[in-house]
Amino acid sequence: MYYGAAYYPEHKTAEELEHDMILLIESGINTVRMGEFAWCRMEPREGEYQFDWLEAAVERLGKAGIRSIICTPTACPPAWLVYKHPEVVYVDNRGLERPFGGRRFYCYNNPVYREYSRKITEEIGRRFGKNPYVCGFQIDNEPAQEASGRCHCPVCQAKFSEWLKDKYKTIEEYNRRSGNIFWGQDYDSFDQIRMPVNTIEVSAEQKMPVYFENPTLRLEYERFCSESQIEYQDIQSDVLHGYTEYPVTTNGTGLATNSIDYYKSTRKLDCYGFDYYPGLRDAAVDSFPYAFARGVKDGAPFWVMEFMSGGGHRFGGSGRVQPNPGALKQAVLQSFAHGAEMMLHFQFRTFPFGAEQLNYAIVDMDGVPRRRYYEMQETARLLKELEPLENAGFANEIAICVDYDTHWALRIKPVNDPDFKYLDYAGKMYHVLEDNGYNSDVISYDADFSKYKFLIVPSAFVASREFQQKLRRFTEEGGILLGTFLTSAKNEDNVGYTDSLPAGLTDVFGAVVEEVEPVFKDNHTNVRLDLDGSEAVSTDGMWSDILGGSARAIGTYTQDYKTDSMVISENTYGKGTAVYMGTDLEKEAMGELFQYLCRRAGISKNPVKAEEKIEVVRRVLNGENYYYVFNFTAKEAEVSVETPVYDYLKKCRYEEKAVLERNGFAVLKEIKG
After folding, report:
1. Nearest one of 338, 340, 362 to 349, comparing CA atoms
2. pLDDT by residue (tens digit) across 343-364?
3. Residue 315's pLDDT band (boundaries 50, 70, 90)?
4. Where, residue-wise, is CATH 3.40.50.880 in the chain?
5. Where does the record place the Beta-galactosidase C-terminal domain (predicted)?
6. What is the 3-state secondary structure (H, E, C) of 385-450?
7. So what's the pLDDT on residue 270?
C-alpha cells in the first residue's frame, strides 16, 4: 500500500530541502510524487536537460525506504518553448488565446507541442525508467483542468472537421443522422462545420448566453475533445512504457469534471489515478467516486494522486476547514477499504509563493510538524498493520451503470435543470443501497454484466441498439434489471428515437411511456408502492412518466388525474425481471424498493448494521468476510452485528454490538461456525 504526499524539491533552498527530507523520512510514509510542474528546471534551455536535483531527491528518499512517483511536466511548458512557438497556446471557445503563465495553457492537438512533450517524456523515461527508487509515473497533471480541454485553435478546428469526415464519410450522411434539416442547417462540406461555441466545460465562459447549436454536433465535439486528450496522453504513455516496467497513469479530476471518458482514457494506462478533495470536518466522505474508480479498469486497484491534507486557504480564494482529529487517518483507511492501492496527500508543505500560496498541507509554511503531520505518522503505521489484508477482493452482486455519452447529452440539453443531475442521481442510488446494507459496484455500459444479480441503469438517456440488446440478454438470462425515467430516449447520434419509449425495450419492461413531464416544487404527486404485500409511500421527484402496458404496477399515483396510473412497473422477461421506475422516489421509499428487488435477486444484506453516516464495506480474503466500518456521525456510535465478529485491530470479539469513537473505524472479521 503506497502512502505519502506530493513534494516539490525544486522550490527549496538547500537548507529547506534538508529540513524537509528529515521530516519526510521520519513521517513513516513510503511514497512521494514529484516533478509535475518543473519543466523549466528539467530543461532550462532547449535540449539542455538537468535532472541532478531530482535524482538526488529520489536517491535520498529511496535509501530511506520512500519511493517516488515521477511526473512528466507537460502541464506547464517553459517560457522559452512558448515564446519560440507561440502557436502552441490554447484558444478558448471565445477565441481568446491563453498567455504564458499559470498552467494548462497549451493546445493538446498542436503537433509542435506534442513533439516537445514526447522529447521531455523520453528523457524522463531514460533517466528514471529503471531507477530502483521509483515506483511509477504520472503523465501531465489533471488533464483538461482549468477549462483547458476544449481548444478552438486552427489546428483543432481542422482536425475536428477531419475527425467528422472519417466517421461519417459523406456530408450527406452527417446531415441525415444529425437532423441538420432542422432550422435549415445542412452543410455542403465538412470544412464548413465549426466547433460549438457553447460548452459544458467546468469554469469556461460562454461566448453568448443563448445559441441553439445542434445536439449531435455538440456531443460529437465532446467525443472528439476527449479522444484528443487521450491521444495526447498516449503519446507519453507509449514513450514511458518503452523505458519502464513501473506503472504509468495520470490524475483525473472527479468522475467527469473535465469531460474525458476515463473508461477509454485508461486503456493504455496501468491503473486509474485521480484527485479527490472531500471535506473532513464532521462529514461523511462520499465513497461513490471510489466505487467508480474501482470499475474503470474492471475492478483493478486505483491510485489517489492528490487527497485532502488539511484546512486553511484555498486555491480559489475561499477556504477549507480543518479536519477533525482522526479524520485524515479514517479517510485514508476508507480509500484503501474501497480498493485504493495508493493515497497521496496534496501537499506535504504549504507553498509561500505562486497561485497556490498559503494553501492547505500536511506541514505549514514554517516547517514545524503539528497535528496533521503526527496523524500521518499514525496512518503510516496503521497501513503497515493492515498489509496482510491488502489482497482482499470484492464480491458485490449489485452494479450501477454510468455512461459518458449520457452524461454529456444531459449536460448539453439538460432535463429539469438544475434539479436533475445524472451523476448525482446515480450517486443517490449508490448511497440508498449502502444505507440499506448493500454494497455495489459502479461500472460502464461496456462492462461484463454476467457476474451481477441486480443491475441498476439510471436514466440511460443515450442507448444504442447494441446496449438495448445487452440489457435484454441480462434480463433474459435471469438478472434483475432496474431502469428509470429517461431510459433509451436517444440513439448514439444524440437524436431522439421515434419508436415508443423506452425505445427498443418496451417488451423487456412490459411498459410503454404514455405521458411525461418534469416535476417541480409545485406539481409533486404522491406515489404508492405495492411490494408483495408491503406498502411504501413517497412523493414523486425530478420527472414523471405515466406508463401503460402489460406489466404489473408496483407503483401507482394516488392524486389528481394521475390517480391509479402506473409509474413503476414490474415485468417477467425470460428468466429475469425488469422494473421501470418512471419517477424519482424519496430515500426511504427507494430503499424499500431496493430491498424488495434484492430479496428477489437472492442478495443478502451485510450482517453489520449501522445508522446513517456509518459506512460498511465488505471485502473477501481466502473465503472469509471482512467488514470495514467507518463512523462519520461526528459522535460516538454503536453498530450491531448479526453474527459474531473479530476486531482485527483491537484483537477482541463482538457478539452483538461494537462501539466506534468519533471519526473511528473498525476492521471486523466474520466468525464462522
Report:
1. 362
2. 999 999 999 998 888 888 999 9
3. low
4. 398-601
5. 614-670
6. HCHHHCCCECCCCEEEECCHHHHHHHHHCCCCCCCCCHHHHHHHHHHHHHHCCCCCEEECCCCCCC
7. 98
CATH C-level class of 2-150+229-388? alpha beta
Cα–Cα distances in angstroms (integers) from residue 321 to residues 243, 280, 577, in the given order: 43, 8, 47
At residue 198 the predicted structure's pLDDT band, cuts being 50, 70 and 90, is confident
Instruction: Determine the CATH number of domain 398-601.
Output: 3.40.50.880
Is pLDDT of 121 > 90? yes
Per-residue confidence (pLDDT) for residue 358, from 0 to 100: 85
199 — pLDDT class (breaks 50, 70, 90): confident
Q: Which residues are annotated as a binding site?
A: 103, 107, 141, 151, 153, 156
Write the DSSP symbol of residue 643: S
Architecture of domain 608-670 in CATH? Sandwich (2.60)
Q: Which residues are annotated as a binding site for Zn(2+)?
A: 107, 151, 153, 156
- Tell me the C-alpha distance between 166 and 174, whole Å: 11
**For residue 76, what are the contacts with CB-CB under 8 A and spacing of at least 6?**
36, 37, 39, 40, 103, 104
Q: Which residue ranges make up the annotated binding site for substrate?
A: 103, 141
Closest alpha carbon to 234 in 267, 272, 263, 274: 267
pLDDT for 211: 66
Active site (catalytic) residues:
142, 306
d(CA 58, CA 68): 6
Query: Cβ distance 66 to 25 under 8 Å?
Result: yes
According to CATH, where is 3.20.20.80 located in the chain?
2-150+229-388
Residue 504 pLDDT exceeds 90: yes
Which of the 8 DSSP states describes residue 551?
S
Range list of H helices, 271-355? 288-296, 327-337
CA 200 to each of CA 51, 102, 109, 180, 259: distance values in angstroms, whole numbers, following the listed order: 39, 22, 20, 21, 8
Burial tier of 124 (Cβ tally within 10 Å: 0-12, 13-18, 19+):
buried
> Range(s) for CATH 2.60.40.1180 in the chain?
608-670
